[in-house]
Amino acid sequence: MIASVWLLSITLTISRCPDKSTLILVGSVLLGSSVFFNLFLLLAIPAAALFFYNKKLMNIQSVSSKFPTTSVRTYSYKELEEANGGFKEILGRGAFGTVYKGVLASDARRFVAVKKLYKVVQEGEKEFKTEVTVIGQTHHRNLVGLLGYCDQGVHRLLSKRKVFGEHVSISDW
């Protein structure tokens, strides 16, 4: 019913139009622009989806390759905060951060020392990555090993094994 009314309307409009070539020209322009717009959408939507997928994939790869050669674990800020009981028991302070005593929830027998870094600036991003990479690759009987790190926004923390009964200098940390 609606289609027949629409067709009748077009027929009446054509019969009233003094110049049929103008109508053909307008119809051609409308049809051409409609086809062009539909083709544009047909190509733009998959291209945008591919762009955002690749961007997301690159972000995932950059995070996973942030510290490629280390065997350290990534901790969330919440995990390390819970391990330290809200950063209450201080072991020492240094130029770059405060060291806290804690116990990891995953292993109640594993005591850790968590260094909470003071200054978090963009210029320090490279230095933080370098520190995690170098300390994570260093293995020596006289050095405390790096268990993991946290790099969430303004929170940068290093988690190391806590050694009891031995003289360990926090300033060497």
General description of the model:
Residues 85-173 form the Protein kinase domain. InterPro entries: G-type_lectin_kinases/EP1-like (IPR051343), Kinase-like_dom_sf (IPR011009), Prot_kinase_dom (IPR000719), Protein_kinase_ATP_BS (IPR017441), Ser-Thr/Tyr_kinase_cat_dom (IPR001245). The chain crosses the membrane at residues 25-53. The protein has 173 residues and is of the alpha+beta class. 47% of the residues lie in helices and 20% in strands. The chain has 4 helices and 6 strands; from the N terminus they run H-H-E-H-E-E-E-H-E-E. A 6-stranded mixed sheet has the order 1-5-6-4-3-2, with helices on both faces. It is rod-shaped.
Topology (SSEs and partners):
Elements: H1 2-16, H2 20-64, E1 73-74, H3 77-83, E2 90-93, E3 97-103, E4 111-117, H4 124-137, E5 146-152, E6 155-161
Parallel strand pairs: 1-5
Antiparallel strand pairs: 2-3, 3-4, 4-6, 5-6
> CATH superfamily membership of the largest domain, which one?
Phosphorylase Kinase, domain 1
The helix count comes to 4
String of helices and strands = HHEHEEEHEE
Q: Largest beta sheet: what is the strand line-up?
A: 1-5-6-4-3-2
What is the number of domains?
2
* Uncertain stretches of 5 or more adjacent residues: none
Radius of gyration: 33 Å
What coarse outline follows from CA principal-axis ratios? rod-shaped
Question: Percentage of helical residues?
Answer: 40-55%
